[in-house]
Amino acid sequence: MKLSKQTFIKGAIILIIAGMISRLFGSINRIVLARLLGEEGIGIYMLTLPALFLMITLSQIGIPVAVSKLVAEANTENNRQKINQILTLSFIITISLSLILTTLFILLAPFVSSYLILDERTYLPMLMISPIIIIIAISSVLRGYFQGLQNMKPQATAQVIEQVVRIVFVVIMVKAFLPYGITYAAAGAMVSIVIGELISLIYMYYCFRKTKASIIQLGVNVAKRKMRSTLSSILHIALPTAGTRLIGSTTYFLEPILVSQSLVLAGYTISESTKLYGQLSGYVLPLLLLPTFITHSLSVALIPSISESNALNHQQTVHYRIRQALRLSFASGGIATIVFMLLAPVILQIMYSNDNGANFLMFMAPFFLMLYFQAPLQAALQALDYAKHAMINSLIGAVVKLGTLWFLATKPSFGIDGVVIAIVVGVLVVTFLHFITLYKLIRFTMPIWLTFRMGLLVVIIYLIGRKIEQNILIETILATTLMIVILIILYLIGLFAFKIVSKDEWKQLKQGRF
Fold first, then answer.
1. Structural domain that includes position 440
2. Is the residue at 330 inside a domain?
3. CA–CA distances in Å: residue 274 to residues 171, 257, 344, 493
4. Which end of the chain has fewer CB atoms < 10 Å from its terminal CB, N or C?
5. By the 8 A CB rule, do 280 and 345 touch?
6. Is 3 inside any structural domain?
7. Does residue 341 contact residue 402 with C-beta atoms inside 8 Å?
8. pLDDT per residue over 220-260, tens digit each?
9. How far apart are the first and last CA of the chain?
């Protein structure tokens, strides 16, 4: 008998609800940090993270996606032995790599902080966050395992637990270290992240123990079997996926370095560039990325669903699932785009007690609508064994983004505006390349009439919002909330009226409650 699983819609909705709760706590966490650390402290905090994410990507080398896809296929065949082999090899690879990379990260931290980021205050936060590499490496394999079984509840619950623990400890740690200076306070914030991830891992392992004796026992039981074929299957998916994520992490790692270097050349001081990057990466980008918890949830559920349909040669279902994920991604991203374009200054003022970065947010919001399509498209390519193509697209986008950043940001006439434009260009290039690739490989298309309805809906709701804004003074939290509620209601009506979300899907969502 196959292990129990959830439908695509039910699995996605579980992750979306968990993601919504996590983002809520994450926003609270970011507001607390912004108020305690200030723009410069947030700048130090954000400058530290890219180097960490690069190490985490290297430690995983795309294993979670490979585990999810291969476990889904093995579960379709009811092949428990193959699932054991996949897990054993995945744990061996990720744990070994994470131990090596944690050591490397600690050794290179002084060089990175002093000579690449050009801010020595990032050194201590880097040291404090380093234990998280091995924690995330182990938990990522466990997440991939449950995703492959299309059982999203353990991951969803762990996600919420991690955020709750983090927000409790971030207040404790930052307040405890703040008297010693901004650097120590930023380091304390990093410690809270490590604690949150550790508690989350403990819960994931508890869920894992319900189906396995232990990780050690698993390895002993399976080590005697021949696993060369399984290793080859893992690496065939993992390496291109790792390439894609490595490109993203490398770009994220190089971005603050290039920003610091280019803004200095443009005439900014180190302190000024750190503050501006803190506004962009600490205030603006987290808001723009807010809807991605939905697109990410859809992508996570999409990989095993498409893998299973593709293994059964149900190509029509594959196309339907991709379109469905894109429509639902638009449903979340479209309203966020409208709200940010209309209410950017007010939202920033309410959240951070200043509206610095409002112009960035209003300018970037309409372009980031394309980012919300990017994750489902990439997940589809990975699930269809086209991870290599996704990697190439990401590489092209990264090169274009960093090249544009350096070209524009070094010019005094552009400065930080050049960074903003470069980020937008990178998003557009990768998303359009993913669309083109899927069309070439499987003839996937988005119906023109559907695309037109999506664009028309955004324009109509935006114009209505502008009219409301001109007649009502929107400055208080109550007025802003009321405005957002009105926009959401109108937008939801539009989604059904324009047939972007169907009544059948709404029924499935309601039936998917748990």
1. 8-511
2. yes
3. 23, 11, 22, 43
4. N
5. no
6. no
7. no
8. 454 445 566 777 777 776 777 667 767 776 777 778 778 87
9. 23
Q: Is residue 150 part of a domain?
A: yes
Cα(189)–Cα(177) distance, integer angstroms: 9
Gap between the Cα atoms of 184 and 465, Å rounded: 43
- Residue 18 CA from chain centroid, whole number: 14
Confirm whether 35 is domain-assigned.
yes
* DSSP codes joined into one string, 62-121: THHHHHHHHHHHHHHTT-HHHHHHHHHHHHHHHHHHHHHHHHHHHHHHHHIIIIIS--GG
Q: What angle do CA 414, 43, 404 make, to 5 degrees?
A: 30
Asked if residues 251 and 57 have their Cβ atoms less than 8 Å apart, the reply is no
What share of the chain in percent tops pLDDT 90? 16
Cβ(345)–Cβ(474) below 8 Å:
no
Q: How many domains does the chain have?
A: 1
The amino acid occupying position 402 is L
For residues 451 and 498, the answer to whether their CB atoms sit within 8 Å is no
**Residue pair 501/325 in contact by the 8 Å Cβ criterion:** no
Backbone angles phi, psi at 55, to 5 degrees: -65, -40
